[in-house]
Each structure stands twice: as structure tokens, then as C-alpha cells.
Amino acid sequence: MSMKRKLYFLVVGAVALLFSSCGSSKKFVYLQDMEMGQGYPYDTKYEAVVHANDRLDITVSSKSPELAVPFNANGGSFQVGVNGAITESGGGKKGYRVDTNGEIDFPILGKLHVEGLKVSEVTALIRNRIIEGKYIKDPLVSLEFLNFKYSVLGAVGTTGTFSVEGDRITLLEAIAKAGDVTQRGRVNRVAVIREEDGQRVLYQHDLRSKDLFESPCFYLHPNILQSPYYYLQQNDIVYVEPRYRKQDREDKGWKVITGILSFVTATCSVIWAIK
Q1: CA–CA gap between residue 217 and residue 102 (Å, rounded)
Q2: What's the pTM?
Q3: Tens digit of each residue's pLDDT (9 = 90 or more) over 43-86
Q4: What is the C-alpha to C-alpha distance for residues 158 and 177, in angstroms, rounded to an integer?
Q5: Which CATH class is domain 55-145?
Q6: Quick one: which of 14, 116, 136, 230 has the most CB atoms within 10 Å?
């Protein structure tokens, strides 16, 4: 056999192997329609919203630390740093639980309705009540979520419930923390199940499209990129739909067939090449 013909069979074998291994890879490319250099704006002023059953760590500080002690659930001691910053020492963070009526029982101020308010709105509410009551002239109020959690189910590397440090996480970040979508996952069928006004609402997403940025669930919270789901909210459930059994069998059959053809082609190429 001529060298030219041997080279031909070697090239055919290599192409067959390459085709069988990469034929379906495009299905798993995220945001594949994004354009290089194109800007995709998002809301940089995002704030988390308080919901019932949230547990909030609220700290009141002042230039006169002893005035702030009654407003802090832990009643710890305070220190003033060289830069004027007020820090609290001692006691664990138990936080304030938002009850089913959307209220917290805050020291001195009593019942405060905080459900549906943004972080800055809650801190402003407490600060204004303290000033109006003439308890502290210039209070500093900070708020953190102690139980910001979400769940990821379906065709991902690791299913389960995850905690968030801070008060924001995007849908893509949540999936990444769960070990990414597996080969059995349908990247065009990723759902976010959210509690809204006493009901559970489901939103579908296609991770292959840049339209994800305009989804109400990209953040697991509203008003990002014109969508309430760019950020996840507390207690959101992310579900990556697996392929149906019929599709699995078809995919498996296709993989077996392409694998056999690739093996036969490569074997024949080697045999012809060494003759």
C-alpha cells in the first residue's frame, strides 16, 4: 500500500475519534451566545429583602458604647478602637427571628415589622426609632443574615442545602458550589422554586443563553439586571432537570455506536498503515 493511502486512513481514524468525543460538547457551553466585548449591565445597588423565619444579627453601636448595650440582645461589652470604630466582644450570635407576622421583638423598641424591607430600610427603621426616642443621638446600626440558605437538587455534582456568607449569591454561583451540572443534566431546564406571597412559584432557565441575565432568578433575589432572580433569595430551591430515561437510553445507544465505529475505524487504519 502506498504511503499516501496509509496517511489517508490515519487521518480518517483521527477525525472519527475527535468527532465521537466532541460531537455533543456545545450542549454544555454556558452563555454561548454572549458576544466578546459586549457589555451586560447589572444592578450594583442590590440589597437582600427580609422574609419570615429569617434570623437577623442586628448590632447597635454608638460613640458612647454604654448607651448601645440595652439595644443588643447579647448584652456584651464594647470597645472603642483608635479609629473610633465600635466593636462588641463576648456572647454568641443568636440573632432575631422574624416571626410569621413578619415582626421581630427588638429590645427597648418592642415589635418591629421588617418583612419585605431591604437591609438598608431595616437599619434605617431601627436607627430612626432610637433617635426619635432620644435614646442615642447618633446610633450606628448594622444587619447580617444568620441563616441565608438555599437548596440545589437534581443533576448536579453535590445536592444539598448550602449556606451563604453575606446576603447575595447568583444562580451560576449556586450551581458552581454544588459541583456544576453533570453530563446527565439539562442545562436548558434549570428551575428556581421560590416562595412568593404564600405560594411556590417555578421559573425555568436556559444556562446556554445570555437571556439568563434578564431572568428573575439569576441573582437569588429581585431587581438585578431587570430580573428578580439574578440573585437567589433565602430558601430558594434550584432544580437541574435530569434527562428522561428515554433520552438517556438514546444517548447511551448513540455513544456505544459512535464508540464502536471509532474503534473499528481506528483499528482498520492502524492495520492498513502497518501493512
Answers
A1: 23
A2: 0.64
A3: 666 778 898 889 999 999 999 888 999 998 654 445 556 565 55
A4: 8
A5: alpha beta
A6: 230
